[in-house]
Amino acid sequence: MVISLLLIILGFAALIFGANWLVDGASSLAKKYNVSDLVIGLTIVAFGTSAPELVVNSIASLNGYPDIILGNIIGSNNFNLFIILGTAGLIYPITVQSSTVWREIPISLVVAILLVGLANNFFLDEISQISRLDGGILIIGFTAFLFYMFRQMKKDENIAVSYQHKSNLKIWGFILLGFTGLIVGGQLVVDNGILIATNLGVSEKVIGLTIIAAGTSLPELLTSIVAATKKNSDIAIGNVIGSNIFNILLILSVSSFINPISYHPKFNLDILILIGGSLFLFMAMFTGKRKRLDRWESAILLSFYLIYTIYLVWKEIQ
């Protein structure tokens, strides 16, 4: 048990460093092409910080752990929305661009609604699962999102961005180190997460929604906290919203392509909480004179997540 805890911590550390190196290399590459901070936050940083979820879920899918996959995706999105935005908003109120209010936030909401529809057989399948067909629908949505971001990049191409020159060797070295750390860390997290669940006698769902979700979301947490302390709202909000979209459209689709994911309705409440949190974030943009997430609204997000976590644990021990 103690060894498993130490190894999962080591795995999280490898994931964090790996994601950081990957983001550093990829962001440096993007800066060479004059990409704006908002687009970097919504795409490269979001993809890099979602890489731990991608690796962990791919390994879990290969080994047949559907509750770990779903718990990690849904739990990570809830952690991103409630804990990361809540923490960043307490540090510095997050001002949100109009395009994010009317486009990216609603997209993340629609994606969450699509997930609950596909998983519960509202559209296509005869059984409750994320099938390869469902994964195909999600990947089409992901492609459409990338196309939208490409158009956004074209609009922002004249925006000046700061850039410290790095050699191609250094950039690709960071990217390679990043992928290595992610793969090693992901394997440690999945293997030892299952062992901890077995030893504690708790479900894979709860482990996925809490420990693994929080651990794989640490890169997003660190990225948004640093952005908030530097008063860079675009990166703080773009990182979270982008990651939530990536998690469902890309990571869940990849996981379903590896193996169809069995879905249990017990996850419906957790997805509904994600939908409710996304609605709260959208409505919070209109509570003041400016489109921003204020400190009192951030405190509500944090408080609700605490209550939700207590409920998960209480229900598990009943």
UniProtKB/TrEMBL annotation:
Keyword ATP-binding listed: no
Name of this chain's protein: Calcium/sodium antiporter
Membrane topology recorded in Swiss-Prot or TrEMBL: Multi-pass membrane protein
One Gene Ontology biological process: intracellular calcium ion homeostasis
Primary location recorded for the protein, binned into one broad class: membrane
Domain Sodium/calcium exchanger membrane region: start-end pairs: 4-150, 171-314
Record-linked Pfam families: Na_Ca_ex
Organism: Christiangramia crocea
Gene3D superfamilies: NCX, central ion-binding region
UniProtKB keywords: Membrane, Transmembrane, Transmembrane helix
One cellular component term from this protein's GO annotations in UniProt: plasma membrane
A molecular-function term among this protein's GO annotations: calcium, potassium:sodium antiporter activity
